[in-house]
Amino acid sequence: MIGFVTVAGMTRPGYDPNRNWISQLSLGPGGPLATANMVCCGIWLLLGAEGLRRRLQLTRSGRWAAVLVFWCGACLVVLAALPTDAGIGYPPDVAPTRTGVGFAHQVVAIVLGVAGVAAAVVLGRCLGLGRVGAFVAVVMAVAFVAGSVLVVLDDAGVLPGNPSGLFERVALFTGLVWIGLLSLKAAARGQDAGREEDVGRAKVPARIANAGRRETGLVVERPLSERPRP
Questions:
Q1: Number of domains in the chain
Q2: 8 A C-beta contact, residue 38 and residue 4
Q3: Rounded to two decimals, what is the model's pTM?
C-alpha cells in the first residue's frame, strides 16, 4: 500500500500528497485501483490478525493485539466501500460535497486511527518491545490528531493548503510498518519455540523414557555407544 499510495499521489494530476488524504485517491481517474489497493491492504491485515491470534493466543495482551489488528483491517475494507467526499482541492474543478456516506467514511477513519494506536502499544508490550511500541503509538497519535485538525481548518478555509495529508501518511505508514515488523517477529518466535520443543523432546535420555514405560513393560534400549563398558 505504501508504494502504491506514494507513486499514485506523486503522479495523479491535480492531487497534492502533502495536502490531500489517501482515501481521496479513490476519486477521479485511477480511483478503482486506489480502492482495490485499500481492500488488499485491509485483507492483509485481517490475515495478519489471524496469524497473530494463533501465535499469541496464550496471553491476554496477545489476543487483544490480534483483535485490534483485525479491526484495523476491517476498517480499511469498510473505508474502501464508503467513498469519501470531494474537498480540499481534489478532484480539481469539483465543488466540495457533503454526504452521509462521506460522513460515515470519516467516522470509520477515526475508528481506524484509534485501533491503530492501541494496536501499536499492545503489540509492542506482548512482544517485549513495550517502550518502542509506546513511542510508535505517540508518533501515530500526534500525527493523526494533527492531520485531523488541519484538514478541518483547510476545509473551512481557515488554513488552506496545509499539510494535513502528510500527517495522515505519517500516522498510517508508521502503523503499517510497525504491525508488519512485529508480525514477522511473532512468526519467528513461534518457529523458534517449535524448534526448541522438538530439540527438547529429542534430548530426553533413555533412562527417563524407560521410567515412564516400566509399568507397561516397554523399555528403550540404549545405543551401544551409551552403554557402560565393563
A1: 1
A2: no
A3: 0.80
